[in-house]
Structure prediction request, 420 residues.
Amino acid sequence: MSRGPSKGVLFERMLCRLFESKGYRVTHNIKLRGRSGAEHQIDLLVEYECPLHISRVIIEAKAYTSPINKEKVMKLIQIVDDLGVDRGIIITTSYFTPGAVEIAKGRNIDLWDRKKLLELLGEAAIEGVIAEAEEQPTPEAEIYIMPRKTLSEARAVAEGLVRKRAKGGLFGFGKVIEYLEEVLLVYVPYYEIDIQATITESRPKGIFGRELVRKMVTASVCFDGVTGELIKVDQRGIHYDFPWTSYLGAEEIGILRNYPQFTIADLRGLGYSDYKARRLAERLTASGCYIAQRPRRGYTIYIRNVTNIGDPRLLGSISGLNLVMPAIKEVKEEKVITLNPKVEEGLIIQRVKALWSDAEVKRLKKVYYPFFAWILTTEDGGKRLEMMDGVSLRIKKSISDRLAPILIKAMERSQSSDRS
Prediction:
């Protein structure tokens, strides 16, 4: 049986009929290009012919049950300015936060809440929309990725590595004696989020010149569900190139995104107190994102030390590898551990919006990615964990270091249960 239109679309159509009944010309679901070059998706474009010009108003329809915050108002203010239209209106089936109301004051923005809608349409007309409206993306069914080797084949790889290290290099130098314990298939949870964001690109202009243009793009980005880190994905597997994304807050990420270098005075100029500015600088240097340098003039300059994340399309996604298999509850292997996410979905969405300030989250799903893990015991009784990517079949030290404490405990529990 085919599904009907979503509640959001029904709400937009209801508003189309409302404005058309007042004599306006309405275009539903249109893309408009602004002066910056960015393309904006508009729910309703409402036009009215005045004596001297055609008045143009853009409308954002929000069939939400939760309040509209100031970030959504700020985004519409920017779009109105970029398109050069006369006005913008946000119409919602809920209400607006005090911050949203305050930031709209003095701007060419109108806010229509549930009370305003009831005056125009009546309770019966919108009660169906309000009943099932929702704001946050709904997680889809869990998706698992199939490993390229069986557990017994992975054990053979681990045993081969142990034998090779035991022989050492030339004339036996550098040999390491270790003993292989349990080998497990481990499913690590990742959040894969479909987003729409505006980026800045450099394009050729004329023969030798270049210009910066803004454009809207869609992409899928992935975060580790255990550590909360943003990851990069390609045919060689999963890469942890941005460890600071699990350490820094939204304010620090905003500074990192916008300032190649800064001083404490610069942060005070942004409105931070001297104490807060110094705390921000400390966190940014402790994370390794900035290096503090003190030139002759005496004040410290903080210089960015990591690659700034720009176009989200360059990060890749797990689903983009085309290795997705249907959701499963059990894998036909002897030893399997499925880790549970430790970072909440809401926090991940906050990090997305900090990394790309105007990002709009379209969809979120959990993807479980396979790794083979084994514990190696040394002659003196020490233990270490080694992991192999179940898809690219590469040894992954980065993820081994992050998950070692969790997995060693899980594997030891598995061994204990087997002995009992």
